[in-house]
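Bug #77: duplicate submission created two jobs. Keeping one. Sequence:
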Amino acid sequence: MEHQGKPESSLPKDAARAVVLLPTYNERENLPAIVPAILSAAPVDVWILDDNSPDGTGALADELALENGRVRVTHRPDKQGLGKAYLDGFRRALDAGYERIIEMDADFSHPPEVLPELLRLSEEYDLVLGSRWVDGGGVENWPWRRRVLSRGGSFYARTCLGVSVRDLTGGFKCFRREVLEALDLDAVTTSGYAFQIEVTYRALKKGFRVIETPITFIEREQGVSKMSRSIIWEAVLRVPRLRFEIDP
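Kept job's structure:
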């Protein structure tokens, strides 16, 4: 089920060209703040993809959509994982005619103020990655174990796949629509860390221009992290196979 708010006469002329996909599951505490922050940071729409959150996130999302025509909501039947939520969002955004499609977390771990830079770089590059592990990037409020896991995961994936991207597991990305149109979205079966790795790797294998721009990732203050052992093990086991499964 989808809900779109009423049109706004003040909507910037180029806003319909870009959309931020915002998957949610129990993000009621963050949603009222992150949506206005995104809308004020850049000329983008926000498309909330809620996986039937039991805390009422979906109902709150509907209220935000009624208040602002730049907000859309899709209610998904149940929690199916980040990868499936994004794939659903990709297809919907392409069908709606968006030219720039952005992945972003709903918990302020991805800084909204970087959105204009992602869009600026997307004029020249096909896929722009918000990167924690390039010069100028970093993380805040992470224990050392989480830092080791993230950096180690990116190094592991980079080594297995033979690519130079420093932050393969990051989830703050801006795609030109041509990238998603060229990828075989039906063939993507991973989620979590592995999903982010696979989509970027598929874009690289297709010959698209990929660039990283530094961000500071800030650990969530509200809600509960969605990280789990199953997500980590999926990446460990699936990443080596990607190199042989994906044709150049």
